[in-house]
Design brief:
Keywords: Integrin, Metal-binding, Repeat, Zinc. Residues 136-197 form the CHORD domain. This is Integrin beta-1-binding protein 2. By secondary structure, the protein is of the alpha+beta class. It folds into 3 domains: 10-90; 93-99 and 207-318, Immunoglobulin-like (Sandwich); 122-195, btk motif of tyrosine-protein kinase itk (Irregular). The chain is 30% helix and 23% strand. It has 7 helices and 15 strands. Strands 1, 7, 10, 11, 12 and 15 form a 6-stranded mixed beta sheet that branches. A 5-stranded mixed beta sheet has the order 2-13-14-9-8. A two-stranded antiparallel ribbon has the order 3-6. A hairpin with a 4-residue loop joins β13 (284-287) and β14. The longest helix has 39 residues, at 54-92. The chain is elongated. It starts with 13 loop residues before the first helix and ends with a helix.
């Protein structure tokens, strides 16, 4: 490589080179290609003979390096795009919160289930009053009413007890030998009793919407959000948390969504953009006899003036 003193013109034409580079869309490879083409036309002696001159080899090496750098930048850009896409996907995926049912709530659910079992339709009731598609009301049975023949077409395999959520384990009080941690696995636990299907003449799929009183309090890094709903059914309730990019491009927002089914016939749904960040992995839900308590673990020590902003889920989906 020649020293700087070997080329007294180095740096003297930076302005002209910058102008040429601008005319080549700031692409060094295009500029060097034009220069090489020009030199081959005007200085052919530099490119004759068995060996390429220093100028030819240098230009060729630079072109090769620029081409390689461009390819590397393109690959890195694609990798960054995929990584960003994956990060957004992981950020926006809702996480189901762990649910625990207190002993007193468990007993209340069992009493409600026993009372419901006593309210069997009288033999004289008309089966034509049962809406088609009505699901069997026995826990664990997925059969839907398709007409009078439904009773003979399949046996009802169901759970006589009530769901138990305790210390991360999920099982049925009637057959507690089978215990799982995943909610989906819990729903798939096969019934322990066989009997006749029970279909209500009331369409239980049309649960009534009812507002519930709520409040919150905070102590240190813990925020407790209370939903005053009795007889919350853990098999028909859902509680999720997720992060989402903020509209202003700042810190991500944390979104709490829940659907509470209570007293056997009412639904209460809400989506809240929380007032601050939380540690999603340590947040949990307690179903108590008089209420449902969502325990949120703050990700920082800031105080909250409110639980956050209640929003429509559709509005978040459009963002």
């Amino acid at each position: 490589m020649a020293s700087d003193s070997a080329n007294p013109h180095r740096g003297a034409h930076d302005g002209a080179i910058a102008s040429l580079l601008d005319k080549h869309e700031s692409r060094v490879d295009l500029l060097l290609d034009s220069m090489l083409t020009y030199l081959k036309k005007t200085q052919p002696s530099y490119f004759e003979g068995e060996e390429e001159s220093l100028a030819s080899r240098t230009i060729a090496d630079v072109l090769k390096r620029v081409s390689s750098d461009a390819a590397s930048e393109s690959t890195a850009s694609e990798e960054n795009r995929l990584a960003a896409s994956l990060a957004i996907s992981e950020m926006t995926t809702p996480k189901e919160l762990k649910v625990t049912v207190s002993p007193s709530a468990q007993q209340a659910l069992e009493r409600a289930a026993a009372k419901k079992a006593e309210q069997i339709a009288s033999p004289g009731a008309s089966e034509t009053d049962i809406p088609l598609g009505t699901k069997c009301s026995h826990n664990g049975c997925e059969v839907c009413y398709a007409g009078p023949s439904t009773y003979e077409a399949s046996a009802c395999v169901y759970h006589t007890g009530t769901p138990v959520f305790h210390e991360g384990l999920k099982f049925w009080s009637c057959c507690n030998k089978v215990k799982v941690t995943d909610f989906g696995d819990f729903l798939n636990i096969k019934g322990c009793c066989t009997g006749r299907h029970e279909f209500s003449t009331k369409d239980e799929t049309m649960a009534q919407k009812r507002e519930c009183r709520t409040d919150f309090f905070q102590q240190g890094t813990t925020v407790s959000f209370n939903i005053y709903a009795k007889l919350g059914d853990p098999t028909k309730c859902s509680f999720t948390l997720r992060r989402r990019p903020s509209d202003g491009g700042g810190e991500p927002e944390y979104v709490l969504s829940f659907h509470v089914h209570f007293e056997g016939e009412y639904d209460f749904k809400r989506t809240i953009v929380l007032a601050g960040p939380v540690d999603i992995d340590t947040c949990l839900v307690d179903i108590l006899q008089p209420k449902i308590e969502i325990k949120l673990k703050k990700a920082d020590g800031r105080g909250w003036n409110s639980i956050g902003e209640v929003v429509e889920e559709d509005d978040l989906e459009m963002d």
